[in-house]
Amino acid sequence: EDKVVGFIGLGNMGNHMAKNLVNKGYSLVVFDVNKAVVKELQDAGAKAAGSPAEVASLTKHIVTMLPASQHVTEVYTGNNGILSSVQSGSMMIDSSTIDPAVSQEMAKLAGGKNSVYLDAPVSGGVNAAKGALLTFMVGGPKDKFEVAKTILDNMGKNVVHCGAVGTGQAAKICNNMLLAISMIGTSEAMNLGISLGLDPKLLASILNTSSGRCWSSDTYNPCPGVLENVPSSNDYKGGFGTALMTKDLGLAKNAAQATSTACPLGSFAQEFYTKMTEKGYGQKDFSSAFQVIKSVSGK
Ligand code: NAD
Questions:
Q1: 83 C-alpha vs ligand 1 centroid, how far in Å?
Q2: Is the CB of 126 under 6 A from ligand 1?
Q3: Considering only Cβ atoms within 10 Å of each terminal Cβ, which end of the chain, N or C, has fewer?
Q4: How many CA atoms lie within 13 A of 231 on its CB side?
């Protein structure tokens, strides 16, 4: 079996995912525009390529983990992009969260090269990426899904087939819209409780055994000091950037408009994180919503 995998996009998520593949015995060929992260993977045993095209010329299995639609389009279709040199019979798996229409377009272009492209966005933060505990939501032909799963199983604990290409993105967009909303709600509830004199850790432990419990409260609490090893306890560094969450809410907004579906809280969240990004929170973890709510309360 072919144990060589190409990996493009070695950021907060991709670098852990790629390292897990190395640890599971895959030979990796990697590329990123950021030389520092490439070096980190080389130190872990991966081979560095000079472009996405070179990655595609060296392996038929490629995973991409890039910020947004425009980066995916560039890495696949640009000069020196994957599709300029992809080998017939290749499989490309894109785990970035992007517009489902872009996934469908990439799949069509890949088909024209006798290859297959699947969308496989992930849920779970950087700690889940590190621990190979991600959920992959995959869109593409069922038989190709089975092949992709053998690779994705090394980076996640749930690999779910959602349907045709683009449906993985659809599931992901819905999840993140809910997460964006629940993070604002958790921040608001934690901040109110503190204003009322409650100890934040105690309040969190009550929420987490009550009906308000959610991932934002029990796994990724936005209030500093409640949990260790989450961005809120590390000055909101690392994790999932507010700018990326804002991007995902833009995708939800487009999807809602395209299907004439009401998403009142989704629209509110989109405006809330857009303002945060404008105020300079873009590179901080999105759980810094707590800081914003605290500061508008004058605390
Ligand atoms: P990131 O910005 O940390 O990493 C992206 C990487 O892509 C960077 O290393 C960057 O240098 C590289 N890159 C950008 N343009 C490139 C190009 N043209 N060629 C090669 N490399 C290029 O982002 P991330 O947090 O790792 O997220 C990646 C994707 O996963 C996003 O779509 C995000 O929405 C999604 N996601 C993130 C999280 C999270 O918690 N961080 C969770 C689930 C899903």
A1: 20
A2: yes
A3: N
A4: 23
Ordered by where they begin, the domains of the chain are 4-164 (3.40.50.720), 170-296 (1.10.1040.10)
Catalytically active residues, by annotation? 172
Q: What is the ipTM of this complex?
A: 0.99
Q: Is 41 in the pocket of ligand 1 (CB under 6 A)?
A: no
Q: Is 33 in the pocket of ligand 1 (CB under 6 A)?
A: yes
